[in-house]
Specification:
alpha+beta; Alpha-Beta Plaits; 2 helices; 24% helix; globular; binds iron/sulfur cluster
Length: 62
């Protein structure tokens, strides 16, 4: 499953990177998170990041 972030909605809080640094990385210049491993990673941590994102801007699809 592919992981995406809606960067327009991201507030750069860093929660996703804290939870799952294998997949998410905060870009300090843009103050937005980006997906560094779109093909996925630890599914439980990705789901935790999705559930924890305050902007609800992390998506996963097939
Ligand atoms: S948890 Fe959501 S709002 Fe926070 S940096 Fe990650 S994608 Fe952006």
């Amino acid at each position: 499953m592919a992981v995406h972030i809606d960067e327009d909605e991201c507030i750069g809080c860093g929660t996703c990177e804290e939870l799952c640094p294998e997949v998410f990385k905060l870009d300090p210049d843009k103050e937005k998170a980006e997906v560094i491993m779109p093909e996925g990673g630890p599914q439980d941590l990705i789901e935790e990041a999705i559930d924890s994102c305050p902007a609800s801007c992390i998506y996963q699809d097939d």
